[in-house]
Design a protein that fits this description.
heterodimer, A: about 200 residues, alpha/beta, Rossmann fold, Arc Repressor Mutant, subunit A, 5-stranded parallel beta sheet, 8 helices, about 50% helix, about 15% strand, B: about 230 residues, mainly alpha, 2 domains, about 70% helix
């Protein structure tokens, strides 16, 4: 899944430059550019953005309150400060990350990739397994191999592996025997299902 | 852990070392160093108990700082036979003391779980224990250690090389983590909560200990055996 980025920056030159760098990255798409935070909240909703790059200078003294409010309204959005001028460092603490005006392209790319990754894992913060994940879990608990699961569910092995990763992340359980116990405890399978 | 602190030395008082990091205490019986060492420093205490002080300090370092990695020339100073007997003593400690201790707690939890969850929990643990035994007893003690002992006696064999070493401890730790999650997060809350908290402490301790144990194998045992393999004609 691609991460959807909004850039909120008053300098068009900087915003376009940054968008250009980010658009070249596989995991990221710039979905909107704003020159003020005025309609930011609506924009996040309509574009389904999950990464916000914003210049703290645009928020002035209400920086903190604004971000807190935004964070409450959109808990899944990762907020990154775009620092173009000298700033009081305490202003930067609410952000999940910082990009600076004189960062090189390579630095920006590596930072963005990092944010994107941390975001994908944060994004699915919910611990509930999806229907598909539950199906995979049951199959794993019954002792099926990835290949068998893929064939039975008509999905690729790659997808099975990705479901399994999510199952482990959500449940905190890595081993097959542990997943079996989990499935039994959650009444997803019964002892009779086990050979 | 304070990373800036100077490494332990042979002049450090043994008592000081032990109060510095309480996990080091469990190393004493494995090295056969008895209590009542008074104000002896590491060198004196080791000499009294016929323990290689270099090896003792190296292992203390790994317990105190998981980033610690001994230099090649330091590795040359240790006696492989001492290292092997230390590793065997650790295995013995896990099998004779740590696991039975955890099992005792677990048995009570399994009983309290009744027919619904008891058997599966018991099965889960049994499977885990089997894997541990396989790695420790049937693999390390029957394949790896005898191979190293043969090397030390100047015998070469082509059947095994240390670079095939199975890094199975991660697996063993994963299952321990799973066990923690099952006990804390997923078993119904009313089943022996006190017992489950107690067993968690034991599991965390064992998991940490096993982690250090595999670091010792990776950073001391394997490179030492590699030099042995390369040194011979």
């Amino acid at each position: 899944m691609k991460n959807r980025v909004i850039i909120c920056e008053s300098s068009e030159m900087i915003a376009i430059g940054l968008a250009d760098i980010i658009d070249g990255l596989a995991q990221l798409d710039v979905v909107a550019r704003l020159d003020s935070p005025e309609h930011l909240s609506e924009k996040i909703v309509t574009t389904e953005a999950n990464l916000l790059i914003i210049n703290p200078a645009l928020l002035g003294y209400q920086n903190k309150e604004f971000l807190l409010q935004l964070g409450k309204e959109h808990p899944n959005v990762c907020m990154i400060a775009l620092v173009t001028s000298c700033l009081d460092h305490s202003l930067l603490t609410p952000y999940n990350g910082i990009i600076e005006i004189n960062d090189t392209r390579a630095q920006i790319i590596s930072k963005m990739n990092e944010f994107a990754e941390s975001k994908t894992s944060k994004n699915n913060d919910d611990v509930e397994l999806s229907k598909r994940e539950t199906d995979v879990l049951v199959a794993v608990a019954k002792g099926m191999m990835n290949k068998e699961i893929a064939d039975q569910m008509n999905i690729s092995i790659h997808t099975v592996i990705s479901h399994r990763k999510n199952i482990t992340r959500k449940t905190g359980i890595k081993s097959v025997s542990g997943l079996t116990v989990y499935a039994l405890l959650k009444d997803l399978i019964s002892e009779d299902d086990l050979i | 852990m304070d990373k800036t602190k100077t490494p332990f030395s042979k002049d450090t008082k043994l008592a000081e070392l032990m109060t510095d990091d309480r996990r080091l205490l469990q190393l004493l019986p494995r090295f056969g160093i008895g209590l009542g060492f008074g104000d002896r420093n590491v060198e004196q205490a080791c000499r009294m108990n016929h323990v290689n002080a270099e090896l003792f300090l190296m292992i203390c370092e790994i317990y105190a700082d998981d980033q610690f990695k001994p230099e090649r020339e330091e590795l040359l100073k240790i006696d492989m036979r001492d290292l092997l007997s230390y590793l065997k003593a650790s295995h013995q400690y896990y099998l004779d003391e740590r696991f039975p201790h955890i099992e005792e707690h677990l048995q009570r939890i399994i009983e309290a779980c009744g027919q619904k969850y008891g058997p599966m929990l018991s099965h889960f643990y049994a499977e885990y224990k089997q894997e541990v035994m396989r790695h420790i007893q049937y693999y390390e003690e029957e394949v790896v250690f005898p191979y190293i002992e043969a090397l030390l006696n100047g015998q070469r064999t082509d059947t095994y090389k240390i670079d095939e070493f199975e890094h199975n401890h991660t697996n063993i730790q994963d299952v321990l983590d799973d066990m923690m999650n099952i006990l804390l997060k997923y078993l119904p809350g009313d089943i022996l909560p006190k017992e489950r908290i107690e067993i968690s402490h034991d599991i965390i301790e064992l998991s940490d200990d096993l982690n250090r144990h595999s670091l010792i194998e990776e950073r001391i045992l394997i490179p030492s055996v590699e030099s042995l393999e390369n040194a011979q004609p």
